Amino acid sequence: MKRKIDRRMLQEHFETRVGYVYDIRMRYHCSLDDAVDDPHPEDPRRTHWIYNLLEKSDLINLMHQVQIYPATNAQILRVHKSKYIEALERTELMERDMLITEQEKYDSVYLCAESYYCAKMSAGALIALCQGVASGQVDCGFAIVRPPGHHACKSEAMGFCLLNNVGIAVEDLFYNMLAKRIMVVDWDVHHGNGIQKMFIKNRDVLYCSLHRYDGGEFYPGSKEGSMDQVGEEPAAGFNINIPWVASGMGDGDYMYAFKNLVLPVAREFKPDIIIVAAGFDAAVNDPIGECAVTPECYAAMTSMLKEVCGKIVLSLEGGYNLDAVSNSALGCIKALLGVKWKAGFIPEAASYNGYATLSAAEVNGVPMSKHIVSPSWKAIPDWSAEFEVVDAYNAEPSTLGKDVVDQVINIHKKYWTCLHTAE
């Protein structure tokens, strides 16, 4: 029989109250063209696998569920144009053929009759969690939400995104005077063009994106993700793009960027809250990102940001290998909780469809019935990036990765004093 963690016994060791938001109804957003053996990469099971792993590891019992509601029109319209929202509302009454015709108006988007409702739930859930963290209801949190949002623009859906969850949440915090300075860290493997456009002139929002760029050829395929996009006056310097030039970027590249650029600037900016556009498509074995970031590295990045600002919210964006996305999210949540980290095993994807090769009853490559409790639970939680994930934390950057980060540092030295002393 699976041994349960005694929450009352362990709770005294958890000074951080970690919130989460989740609603199974977000799975209703699905592609009408999906085949059983060939699901769309933005698979409805993505959120379920994360939640399932949290349940199996018993971490869910140490977290606080924040009540959620769909985002209201007033909240959505602070970011999106009314004509676009009216177009999304009409999809709720469309038949299959009309929906397929409608989705073809956008770039890399699918629609069903439930899509707009799910998008409102996704945005509303993030709003609720950000409000909870900013107001002190909880200290930090993870939003297990879909559809994702960082590509969505004011009048356009794109890149699997319908509503810009992070953008809506940021504007809601400002509107309710729950924050004055907000940092958005976007580590999804794709550039968050939608978020960047919304805050390109706002010096109260520091946007920092680490993404594959490939000379502008990687999705979304524009020059907006280049390193010379530093923000527009009066917010020059408040938009930081770290554009990887090729696939294969891994722990060392991300650690080098964090230690020498992201964290120093974050400390100088002094955000009231950090929101992470937490895509896990740069993870090992992701079929789209083709990079090599491990769950330990995602845990380390979370812990490092948490040291800068305890009020931190991670919001799920991309990630298309179900094992990778769930293990990476688990690493981040362990870092938020302060639990000692033990790496999970991510099986190598045999083909493009490798993200769907394991059943929901299996995690880390073994049947969950054999997965009792992580050995890390034998000790009082005392998480440290340097100690627990030493391989990821101390990983060396590639030549290509280091060169990109050094170039971005050189560009932003004129805006940030801290970069004059960066290693």
From TrEMBL:
Membrane-spanning parts: none
Top-rank lineage group of the source organism: Eukaryota
Pfam families: Hist_deacetyl
GO biological process terms held by the UniProt record: epigenetic regulation of gene expression
UniProt domain Histone deacetylase: residue ranges: 40-335
Subcellular locations according to the entry: Nucleus
EC number(s) given by UniProt: 3.5.1.98
Gene3D superfamilies: Histone deacetylase domain
Top class in the EC scheme: hydrolase
GO cellular component, one term: histone deacetylase complex
InterPro entries noted in UniProt: HDACs (IPR000286), His_deacetylse_dom (IPR023801), His_deacetylse_dom_sf (IPR037138), Ureohydrolase_dom_sf (IPR023696)
GO molecular-function terms, A-Z: histone deacetylase activity, hydrolytic mechanism
Keyword Transport: no
Keywords: Chromatin regulator, Hydrolase, Nucleus, Repressor, Transcription, Transcription regulation
Annotated signal sequence range: none
Record PANTHER family: HISTONE DEACETYLASE, HISTONE DEACETYLASE HDAC1-RELATED
Sequence similarity: Belongs to the histone deacetylase family. HD type 2 subfamily.
Protein name, as recorded: histone deacetylase
